[in-house]
């Protein structure tokens, strides 16, 4: 396999699926059918709405502060401590560290008052967060993917409803039903999220010069989600091939999802 390490070729960093969550947040606010979304995590979903603006402005201090705040909300609720939502946070941290390492390592950047200039340190942080994201996603899938929804509902019922203020007892089941809808969707979407995390880990290895390992990770990403355009194009970069183009709408709503 002939691999090109031309540093002038761009690397595709994947900012996870948070922008898709942004669409879900908008729908949440304007649809009565989402009335029974867990009220304890509404503040976290509101914070997510600020993420894209911070990321687009390369406001990394704000990005990390935002992600930390969101993680605190989720981890203070027992049901979410090992949830796929936490995996999203870690992969977005990974993507941010990679952006800093690849595009801004020679600039004067600070994180929580500490100047960070070392590309190696940023890549290391990106690797740690990508691997943590992969572990969280994989553990979540191992636990939930093969279980029937009624069994999951029975297992999580007491833990999930505990702490939600109910106007009437019947509302508890409605909140549980809504969470089961989210879990059902996540069982389908999390392999794609896992693919994204493997892509970012591949970018770490590529930028560290471990080209063969990078290709293996991109291939793993494509095994999980064959429409992962970022993984495809990172392989194209290494092989010196032209990049593939994809319509934005296909990234948000891949054709196979509509058939689900």
Read across the widest sheet, the strand sequence of neighbours is: 1-2
What value does the average pLDDT take?
82
Helix share bin:
55-70%
Query: What is the number of strand segments?
Result: 2
How many alpha or pi helices?
12
* Euclidean distance between termini CA atoms: 37 Å
How can the largest sheet be summarized?
2 strands, antiparallel
Shape: globular
Structural class: mainly alpha
The residue ranges in which pLDDT falls below 50 over 5 or more consecutive positions are 1-12, 16-32, 248-260
List the helices and strands in order. HHHHHEEHHHHHHH
The Rg value, from CA coordinates, equals: 19 Å
How many structural domains can be distinguished in the coordinates? 1
Portion in beta strands? under 5%
Structure report:
This protein has helices at residues 18-30, 42-48, 51-56, 60-75, 84-103, 119-144, 149-161, 171-207, 211-224, 229-239, 248-252, 255-258, and strands spanning 109-111, 114-116. It is globular, with a radius of gyration of 19 Å. It has a two-stranded antiparallel ribbon. A hairpin with a 2-residue loop joins strand 1 (109-111) and strand 2 (114-116). It contains twelve helices and two strands, in the order αααααββααααααα. The chain has one domain (18-200). By secondary structure, the chain is mostly helical.
């Amino acid at each position: 396999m002939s691999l090109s390490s031309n540093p002038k070729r761009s690397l595709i960093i994947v900012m996870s699926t948070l922008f898709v969550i942004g669409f879900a947040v908008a729908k949440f606010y304007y649809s009565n059918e989402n009335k029974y979304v867990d009220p304890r995590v509404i503040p976290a979903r509101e914070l997510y709405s600020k993420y894209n603006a911070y990321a687009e402005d390369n406001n990394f201090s704000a990005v990390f502060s935002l992600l930390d705040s969101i993680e605190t909300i989720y981890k203070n609720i027992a049901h979410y401590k090992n949830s796929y939502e936490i995996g999203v946070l870690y992969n977005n941290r990974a993507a941010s560290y990679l952006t800093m390492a690849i595009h801004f390592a020679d600039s004067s950047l600070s994180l929580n008052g500490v100047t960070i200039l070392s590309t190696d340190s940023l890549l290391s942080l990106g690797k740690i967060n990508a691997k943590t994201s992969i572990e969280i996603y994989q553990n979540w899938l191992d636990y939930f993917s093969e279980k029937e929804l009624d069994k999951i509902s029975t297992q999580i019922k007491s833990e999930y409803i505990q702490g939600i203020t109910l106007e009437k007892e019947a509302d508890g089941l409605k909140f549980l039903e809504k969470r089961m809808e989210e879990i059902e969707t996540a069982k389908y979407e999390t392999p794609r999220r896992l693919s994204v995390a493997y892509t970012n880990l591949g970018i770490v290895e590529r930028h560290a010069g471990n080209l063969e390992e990078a290709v293996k990770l991109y291939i793993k990403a494509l095994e999980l989600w064959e429409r992962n355009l970022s993984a495809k194009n990172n392989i194209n970069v290494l092989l010196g091939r032209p990049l593939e183009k994809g319509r934005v709408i296909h990234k948000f709503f891949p054709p196979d999802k509509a058939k689900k």
